[in-house]
């Protein structure tokens, strides 16, 4: 019987230890079809506050670098190396004796690997290895297995309606829809929207005489998912200036405190705002022009890299195109948004433009063109900063006037105390506490000279534990300025 009791205690202790294992890094893995049997494998690491992971290129004299190990196979081919993107910090680390390390002190951190599939039906497998540390300790290197099962149908749906760019210089410089957010190096300043080259002369615009032949606009719908941050919304307005010339105006509106970044900002920091255009039934005239209250300077979020950003909206991006035939113009806007303390992952917003009849769509709200377009001054009056006033009034983001206040009853301190007591009783059944109960009881019963003495010692032991936590909690009840996490920091 003693053997089985000891075995039970050991098993419960193992469960208790497993319940306390630290897992400060979570990985998300998915794939993105690029077309022509090519895929982007995307690995995203999210760390708990205070924890870091290390770059692939950090010195192996210190921490273990993050590495990706792919199982060999003839059914696929890797294109290039694994690219990494995130808030990077380089400097000496006291944890490793002053060795210079390259780490990501906060997430998300995105790693991407481009592959070309030669034979579908076989998964691409392997494992990644990483090490994570906080300011005082490091966890052992951890391996995480991965497996990607790619299908040809994903490539076919991605490629539907897409036309390969011709080999001319102009089209080769134009960013294609197949680029991904993590491949920031492909989005240099020239990637924004290149100007005409010698092989593609500029088309002169005919005078519009202040009139617009037709116009259409659409506003991105706000996602109503609970807890989802969406501080930037886009609007798209298309104006037909002549039989062949159209003007595309993209307008970004940001919530207070949030910024987006210029097409011309250094891609060593945030992801520049980039516009991708698909199809070949049109010609882009000149560069994408941007306008807004711009600010340039070092940004502490990106290690002091000089950035060009728009700290508030509206921000407008304007592109003129010459249409060769009435084909659909489609593409996506890629952008990153940050406030003073955090950045959201790069986001893509798709758009579509039908020319006959003129319709536009950004996000999932298409709006048809009006039969007779207003003159430019009227269009501006009805489209403040890219937002349709009628649409905003119909579905406001919040109430600006009087709002009904719902009264809520506060719980008394005695009820809170009772709930805390009941929670403590439930906590006795957890695997961290329950195995210790027989050991504690046997300690007092066997060391005491009498039953009364054992009960007295046990009672004093419990009272002193209660007093320790009660006295520690008093300052937090009396002073609101004390940091609730100060004891955890100590």
CATH class of the largest domain: Mainly Beta
Helical content stands at 10-25%
Task: Give the N-to-C terminal Cα separation.
Answer: 44 Å
CATH architecture of the largest domain: Sandwich
Assembly annotation: single chain
SS field, number of helical segments: 9
- Mean residue pLDDT: 76
Low-pLDDT sequence parts: 14-20, 157-209, 367-386, 400-405
Q: Please, could you describe this protein's structure?
A:
With 490 residues, the chain is an alpha+beta fold. Helices cover 21% and strands 34% of the residues. The strands form 7 sheets. A 5-stranded antiparallel sheet has the order 12-13-14-20-17, with no helix packed on it. It is built from 9 helices and 27 strands. The protein folds into 3 domains: 23-151, Immunoglobulin-like (Sandwich); 173-394, Gamma-adaptin ear (GAE) domain (Immunoglobulin-like, Sandwich); 435-489, no CATH class.
SSE diagram, text form:
Layout: H1 2-19, E1 25-35, E2 38-47, E3 52-54, E4 67-70, E5 76-85, E6 89-93, E7 99-104, E8 109-117, E9 124-130, E10 132-133, E11 142-148, H2 152-159, H3 169-173, E12 214-219, E13 232-240, E14 245-254, E15 259-261, E16 274-278, E17 282-291, E18 295-299, E19 305-310, E20 315-323, E21 329-335, E22 337-338, E23 347-355, E24 358-362, E25 367-368, H4 376-381, E26 383-384, E27 387-388, H5 389-394, H6 413-427, H7 436-447, H8 451-478, H9 486-489
Antiparallel strand pairs: 1-2, 2-8, 3-7, 3-10, 4-9, 5-8, 6-7, 9-11, 12-13, 13-14, 14-20, 15-19, 15-22, 16-21, 17-20, 18-19, 21-23, 23-24, 24-25, 26-27
Helix pairs in contact: 7-8
